[in-house]
Structure of RGF1B protein:
Amino acid sequence: RTYIFTFLLSSRLFMHPYELMAKVCYLCIEQQRLSEPGLDKNQIQKIAPKILQLLTEWTETFPYDFRDERMMKNLKELVQRIASGDETYRKNVQQLHQNLIRKLTTVSQYEEVLAKINATSTDCITVLKTKPQSIQRDIITVCNDPYALAEQLTHIELERLNYIGPEEFIQAFVQKDPLDNDKSCYGDQKKTGNLEAYVEWFNRLSYLVATEICMPVKKKHRARVIEYFIDVARECFNIGNFNSLMAIISGMNMSPVSRLKKTWAKVKTDKFDILEHQMDPSGNFYNYRTALRGAAQRSSTAHSNRERIVIPFFSLLIKDIYFLNESCANRLPNGHVNFE
């Protein structure tokens, strides 16, 4: 399964997914003679499990590929050939198709939600500005338990991470193959925006933190909000949600917040200093990477779902992937594909 995933992901550096699917169909239908009317069932039983394994991995891990009508056409043709020979395979094919449709529907609904959020964000800012100060509700009024807010932030993080397809990282970093006269493999393909939406979520959380801190008029109220977010950040660290942790720290380090010297003088900053030390960028985020390894080890031996949670600082993850991609050539000097 690891090989199938790696192959399906890296192959798109050199060809369109629909081209790969067309080749798979050709090999199965023509070379394996699945198009012959009197096909022996033994022949189907010989290749069907492997084809179903490939298609199952493909549809589950890369469902966005099947938004392309050419992909769906080839998929339907191939599974119909397999299903025609055996009742067991017919049920498996039906289940595969239902799961794919369900996943594509869920993805479309999620993208509609993101679109609504983006469309209404400007209106929310306008409403916030026009509301009288007396009826505005701060974050502590809405949720006075730092642990509960940290949990909710983690739920949001996990949901948004779940919708990012592995191919989106390829889309973000792919460059035109110098040996390919055609345009990039993603030139005519609809790109998904889940990766960008997740990065935008980080920015929104940072601005939310800064806004909530700056909204109160009195210094003691601002100090209370700062201490509240310090506790939320600490709970995020304990959970293993490093992305929300960094977003909160970033919000508290924004200039409108950091320049509130008299407010900070009223804050007990010991816990905040510890958190900042953990996310210190020096040494290429050495402290954070050490904590991340510890969280990953805890996750591998966890006995509860909460202990299994590890959400990395996403912007740094993107940076690491980018430089890994840049340091590894797609092709060797002789023009062969680099498999190392």
Summary: The CA atoms of residues 151 and 164 lie 21 Å apart. The longest helix spans residues 87-130. The two ends are 19 Å apart (CA to CA). The chain has two domains: 2-99, 127-327.
